[in-house]
Amino acid sequence: MKFLGIIPARYASTRFPGKPLADMRGKPMIQRVYEQVHSSVDRLVVATDDIRIEAAVRAFGGHAVMTSDRHRSGTERCCEACGKTDGRFDAVINIQGDEPFVRPRQIELLKNCFDQPDVHIATLVKPFDADGDFETTLFNPNSPKVVLNKRGEALFFSRSVIPYVRGEKFTSWLSTHTFYKHIGLYAYRTATLEEIVRLPPSPLELAENLEQLRWIEHGYRIKTAVTRDETIGIDTPEDMARAMAFLDAAL
Question: DSSP letter at 201?
Answer without folding.
Answer: P
